[in-house]
Design brief:
The chain is an alpha/beta fold. The protein contains 15 helices and 22 strands. Strand 12, helix 9 and strand 13 form a beta-alpha-beta unit.
């Protein structure tokens, strides 16, 4: 895949301007491919193709036809699992093992799940003394899907499947840093017979192609996953045009460790929560809050487990962590490690680049890092780093734990580790977040609401929440 193309109106094509941007490997630093540097004119063409598709045969497709198509997409993704996983790993730097067991299987599951969910979705009827109300669900129209680089196909499929299920047309803008599996998805949608113009893919830079999607008057809803500051801009622009908006943004999630936890499970869980996908998941537990009475038992075991993690060639099945997304991102993460030391933190493990030899020394690898001794309100402990860096803090009581966990601008997720059922319920209820896991992390049921509060976003995705976001409810009241 030397040159990735846009997919507009059923045709693979370059940007109208002919301009391209390089997409570099974070594993070796080499150019993997070029992508079209699309601008407003490409987004206009995509929105026009989407409008034509909505006015064409697509509007007559039944729920059953759309669900069957989603199943065909799932089957086609599954048949190309190896190619997709390999491409995702090369494009992101994540271990091939992770792409093969998490990212691509989840993309398959997203299409299967929404095929089933849309068949079963129903709205209630409300009877009155002399009338009955019922709700019709109509597509929103053309929807803009803007996705990040950390879980490229996983997140694009999480939005594409429910948007198609509800009969919308799509203009998708994947991250410029990870364009490749989106292009493979476009090929698959083409092959399984989605009518031209229903799914359009526009590659390019955020402030150019992404901004044009958000601003386009014919795009009626925006589903965005990405950074909080970008999300704020997207929200402002889209709301001013009365578009529906779903914003899934950043997090600074707490892993809360009580002294009555199962220590073995908690250490393993905290490592997984901290460092999955090189710490580049919005749900990652990047602040570990540990009860004082178990701090000295937990921290050395946690640090030891992190020290033993392997970092290197993403194709090596035994590897624990691959590369972060880019050298620029590694520099940002390293600047936080330097800041932590200025703020009085102690690097208990990591903080350095591994010595892997070429070609990997030209990539963006970083040892997993644990920092202790920081104040809970230090910048390092409060700002989203989005890399393999975890800070560890002490707390005394349940109420301290809740106060510390809630003391950040974000409110996405938390995990609570305890064997006291009452405490689990109390703490889960008191945390200002959209999702709480107890004695686990990132265990997902696709039916449940997904999303955050405060600076972590607006709205919920998942199950009926996604189907409702990607449709408009219309009430019909019939008098007897
Ligand atoms: O995200 P951006 P970036 C966080 C994380 C990371 C930071 C920046 O902290 O370090 O965000 O990452 C498109 N109008 N997360 O720079 O910029 C962009 O092209 C419309 C958290 O990658 O938010 C891409 O497709 N679109 C996160 C998408 O927005 C614009 C995952 C996300 O890019 C745009 C990733 C604009 N003006 C990063 N500017 C999570 N919550 O999972 C950019 N884009």
């Amino acid at each position: 895949m030397n040159q990735v193309l846009n997919y507009i109106g059923g045709r693979f094509q370059a940007a109208a301007s002919g301009r391209v941007v390089d997409n570099r490997s974070s594993i070796t630093g080499e150019v993997l491919c070029t992508i079209p540097r699309s601008d407003g004119s490409d987004v206009d063409a995509a929105a026009e193709a989407a409008r034509a598709a909505r006015q064409g045969a697509w509007s007559t497709w039944t729920i059953e036809q759309r669900a069957t198509l989603l199943e065909s997409v799932a089957n086609a993704l599954e048949a190309r699992m190896h190619e997709l996983a390999h491409t995702e790993s090369q494009d992101t730097g994540k271990p091939l093992r992770v792409a093969s067991t998490v990212d691509i299987p989840r993309a398959v599951a997203n299409f299967r799940f929404f095929a089933s969910a849309v068949r079963q979705h129903h709205d209630g009827a409300h009877e009155m003394a002399s009338a009955i109300n019922y709700t019709l669900r109509r597509p929103v129209g053309t929807v803009g899907l803007i996705t990040p680089w950390n879980l490229p196909l996983y997140l694009l499929s999480w939005k594409t499947a429910p948007a198609l299920a509800m009969g919308n047309a799509i203009v998708a803008k994947p991250s410029e840093m990870t364009p490749m599996t989106a292009t493979l998805l476009a090929r698959i949608l083409d092959e399984v017979g989605l009518p031209p113009g229903v799914f359009n893919l526009v590659h390019g830079l955020g402030p150019e192609a992404g901004q044009a999607v958000v601003e386009h008057p014919d795009i009626s809803a925006i589903s965005f996953t990405g950074g909080t500051s970008t999300g704020a801009m997207v929200g402002r622009t889209a709301s001013a045009q009365f578009k529906k908006v779903s914003l899934e943004l950043g997090g600074k999630n707490a892993t809360v460790v009580f002294d009555d936890c199962d220590l073995d499970k908690t250490v393993a869980g905290a490592v997984r929560a901290g460092f999955t996908n090189q710490g580049q998941v919005c749900l990652c537990g990047s602040r570990v809050l540990v009860q004082d009475s178990v701090y000295d038992a937990f921290v050395p075991r946690f640090v030891d487990a992190v020290s033993n993690m392997t970092v290197g060639d993403p194709e090596d099945p035994a590897i624990g962590m691959g590369a972060v997304i880019s050298k620029e991102h590694r520099e940002k993460v390293e600047s936080y490690i330097a800041l932590a030391q200025q703020e009085g933190g102690h690097v208990a493990t990591g903080g350095v680049r591994p010595d892997l030899g070429e070609p990997f020394d030209s990539g963006a690898f970083l040892r997993p890092t644990v920092i202790t001794g920081l104040s809970i309100d230090s910048r390092t402990a409060c700002e989203e780093i989005f890399g393999p860096v975890v800070t560890v803090h002490r707390f005394q009581s349940e109420s301290d734990a809740i106060e510390q966990a809630n003391g950040v601008e974000y409110g996405l997720a938390a995990s609570v580790w305890t064997s006291d059922l009452g405490r689990a319920h109390r703490v889960a209820a008191a945390l200002d977040v959209g999702m709480v896991w107890v004695n686990t992390w990132l265990m997902r049921d696709l039916r449940v609401p997904f999303g955050g509060v405060k600076a972590s976003g607006v709205g919920r995705e998942g199950g009926q929440h996604s189907l409702e976001f990607f449709s408009e409810a219309k009430n019909v009241c019939i008098a007897f």
